Amino acid sequence: MKLNPQQAPLYGQCVLTVQLNNDDEVEVEEEEVEFYCLFSGSTQRHVTSTVRVSRVTLQAVCPAHHVCEQVLVTLCWARPGAPVDSHSQETFTFVQDLALDMAHFLLDSTDPQEALLLDDEQIPLKVCKRLDQSLALALEHLSLPYHTRVQNLYNLLHLAASHGLWMVASFVLQQDGSREALRRADAQGQTAADVAKSRGHKKLGKLFTR
Question: What residue ranges of the chain have pLDDT lower than 50?
Fold first, then answer.
């Protein structure tokens, strides 16, 4: 089999396409066969189900992983009343991407001005949309500590307000301390709601003032 893509960020969640080879195609003729992908890392394993999109193509959602490393993906199939069988294997790599770097930076920073330097960057709309999803997934993957500092939540909320990051904002608002972070103002006296409205993100501004 062949995998596309051949790597994914640690938080996973991307669509993985599995192209079957000639040996695998023989089994595809049986409609009752269910295919699975087994990801085997150094200390962690994951099993994902697949959806068959054509006679020779499967798709799966890539799982999250705990460490950057190359893992072995094994294609497995199951038939009613028969043991699980396996055949093809391919390597796959989990990496740390920009979204994870940003998540670590924003959560580790204790200097609000340093963290909010990102606000000064002019980020294209298409990039913002991709960043919104990937940064939200990265933050969820990191499992924010119960006592996450209000300052860190403030950093995230103001970044979301500046660039219209709806998914990031929604995630942060579920965390303890988010209401206090919403009340904090920046050096210009603006709260996250004020920033969102001034940047034209009216829907986000309403979310912050509910």
Answer: 28, 120
Answer for the pair 28, 20: CB distance below 8 angstroms, yes or no: yes
Residues 144 and 175 sit within 8 Å (Cβ to Cβ) = yes
The string of DSSP letters for 8-50 reads EETT--SEEEEE--HHHHHHHT-TT-EEEEEEE-SS-EEEEE-
Q: What is the CATH number of domain 98-208?
A: 1.25.40
Strand partners, 121: none
Please state which architecture CATH assigns to domain 2-95. Answer: Sandwich (2.60)
Instruction: Give the chain's mean pLDDT.
Output: 86
Where are the domain boundaries for CATH 2.60.40.10 in the chain? Answer: 2-95
Q: What is the pTM of this model?
A: 0.80
Instruction: Please name every residue paired with 180 in a beta bridge, in sequence order, or none if there are none.
Output: none
Residue 49 tokens read as: 């189900």
In whole angstroms, how large is the CA radius of gyration of the chain?
21
